[in-house]
Amino acid sequence: MFAAYPEDLVFSKIDIRNGAIGLVPDNLPKVVVTSEYPIHSIDHEQVAGRYMALLLRTPNFMKLIRNVTSGTSGRKRITPENFRAIEIPLPEREDQLRIVDAYQNSLLKASDLEVQALQVERDAQKAFEAALGLTPLPNLPKRRFQIACFKNIERWSHEGILQTALLGDVPPESKFEIVQLGDIATVSYGLQKCPANRPGKHPRLYLRVANVQRGYLDLHEIKTIDVPDGQMDAFKLERDDVLFVEGNGSRKELGRVALWTGEIPDCVHQNHIIKARLDQTRACPEFIAEWFNTDVGRMHFFRNAKTTSGLGTINSSEVRSAPVPLPEDTVTQVAIVRLLRKGREAVAAKRKQAATLRTAAWNDFITAVFT
Q1: With 0-12 CB in 10 A as exposed, 13-18 as middle and 19+ as buried, what is 93?
Q2: Closest CA to 361 of 108, 173, 7, 181
Q3: CATH code assigned to 152-325
Q4: Nearest-angstrom CA–CA distance, 4 and 10
């Protein structure tokens, strides 16, 4: 074993071509590595550690690395001698710091935009809740331990148990009537995937859990499943169906919802996606989808999710019983949705601006170093 210290350069002989190289961070006063990970100490009079750390991440540097690796496919290595022979761009140390400072200042601006976006997002949700006349849920007490009924232990989260114990499993209070989703929608499962319905004579495109994200559909990869014509009515998606993901290991993603707007003709869905088909004389699909993607809207699922393997799951009964504060007419529902979406558009704009700034900062760093 060999010792390495903060700002020492360490790389993997076999995986350096895949980016396995970096500096020991300052918060690790001493680390040890095997001989497969050569250690190099930086001459700090010539090279700033911050500059080197960024240089190692550039595609230009990785190209230099791949040019000097040798060996059979899958086992290509770089020797310490070949590594030390690589020529890198090395401005004066003051110029290195200036280039790095410009990059980091851009990152700070991007981070500030992200903070602003988060605040706008919170304000938009508060405005949405205020428009519905919702009473905010009280903060839960912090407890080191708690006692719960054995029948509740199957719940996915101890926080869900605590909420039910202290607050009861009651719907949120609103100035509008609280209805259950099952009162305004038909809820059903999709098709269970099995060897018998592998794509055959009746191949149909179908949605998987990966396709249903929170608030949008990811349709980059759509797979097929065999569904005879006689079963299509039961599983075919129709425009304005609201889709719920049955299970997830993350609280943030449990019960996430997206709205189907007819993107693919004759598309079906698998059983891990629960479909709600609304009575649109009573409920606006956009309003329902937006409601269940808010923190307060999905609280019902978080409280009632069960687990047998660490994966939180909900079922069709919990979807049917999910509470909805429902304005009496769809015109009011649409107006409330517009209020929320206006805020989300502002959030998206700020996050896009932040992403653009980060990309530009990285490109500027590469340009400053390699041209």
Answers
A1: middle
A2: 108
A3: 3.90.220.20
A4: 8
Residues ≥6 apart with Cβ < 8 Å to 112: none
Tell me the C-alpha distance between 50 and 53, whole Å.
5
Task: Say if residue 312 is exposed, middle or buried (CB neighbours under 10 Å; 0-12, 13-18, 19+).
Answer: buried
| pTM recorded for the entire structure | 0.75
Please provide the distance, in angstroms rounded to a whole number, between the alpha carbons at the two ends of the chain: 39
Distances in Å between the Cα of 308 and the Cα atoms of 153, 154, 169, 311, 317 are 11, 7, 21, 7, 18
Q: What is the pLDDT of residues 283-325, one digit of tens each?
A: 999 999 999 988 888 888 877 777 666 677 888 999 999 999 9
The alpha-helical segments, DSSP class H, found in 68-189 are 80-84, 93-131, 158-167, 181-184
Residue ranges covered by each domain of the chain: 2-89, 91-132+327-371, 152-325
pLDDT tens sequence across 86-122: 999 999 999 999 999 999 999 999 999 999 999 999 9
Bridge partners of 247, per DSSP, are 313
**Alpha helices, DSSP H, located in the chain:** 49-55, 59-67, 80-84, 93-131, 158-167, 181-184, 232-235, 285-292, 299-304, 316-320, 330-370
Burial class (CB in 10 A: 0-12, 13-18, 19+), 150: exposed
* Sign of the four-CA dihedral 140, 143, 147, 153: positive
Average pLDDT over residues 263-282: 93
User: Which tops the pLDDT comparison, 97 or 147?
Assistant: 97
Q: Encoding tokens for residue 180?
A: 């259950």
